[in-house]
Design brief:
The protein is mostly helical. It is built from seven helices and no strands. α6 (122-137) packs antiparallel against α7 (143-168). The chain is elongated. The two termini are 33 Å apart. The relative contact order is 0.18.
Length: 169
């Protein structure tokens, strides 16, 4: 329940943001929700699943590492582009970045595509592992709950993809 609330609240509020720092702050709440899905799966993992490759703890650690690199990369581009005369604070401040700073635009696009979960980037692999771990963690009596959790997570990932791809556009 906490994972669902965290993902949904973070993505919903991030969707309404134009300020980049606030957008990334609220999206980090959503990413914490994805991590909670992995942690929930980790606490339900069965020792017989060790060969499945989709253990919740491993998925959460991979996702956390990938998310950290992606977020640091996006903030690194924002910091590199900001000057005292022209701070980069809003989505509109990045307009035309592909023409003025193509390398920075490429780096930002890769980070945002990965945060959005576009295959084959690390963000996609992390989300895939999180959701696969959730699907494989449920026992017979709570399989339906993990399926619902996964569907809600995928829907939230689609909402997140929208606001990340909006920045790229």
């Amino acid at each position: 329940v906490i994972a669902v609330i965290t993902m949904t609240l973070g993505n919903t509020v991030a969707l309404m943001q134009d300020n980049l720092k606030r957008l990334f702050a609220y999206s980090s709440i959503a990413h914490a929700g994805y991590l909670m899905v992995g942690i929930t799966a980790a606490f339900r993992d069965d020792i017989s699943q060790l060969n499945s490759g989709y253990l919740g703890a491993q998925a959460a650690i991979f996702y956390l590492a990938a998310y950290a690199v992606m977020t640091l990369g996006a903030f690194g581009v924002i910091i590199a582009l900001s000057t005292p005369e022209r701070p980069v604070e809003t989505v509109d401040d990045l307009a035309g970045l592909g023409r003025t700073h193509p390398a920075a635009a490429l780096a930002m696009a890769v980070c945002l595509f990965s945060l959005a979960g576009v295959p084959p980037l690390a963000g996609f692999l992390g989300k895939y592992q999180i959701f696969a771990a959730a699907l494989s963690a449920g026992e017979v009596r709570d399989t339906r709950l993990f399926q619902v959790l996964t569907v809600i997570g995928v829907l939230n990932a689609a909402i997140g993809a929208y606001y990340y791809l909006r920045i790229v556009v």
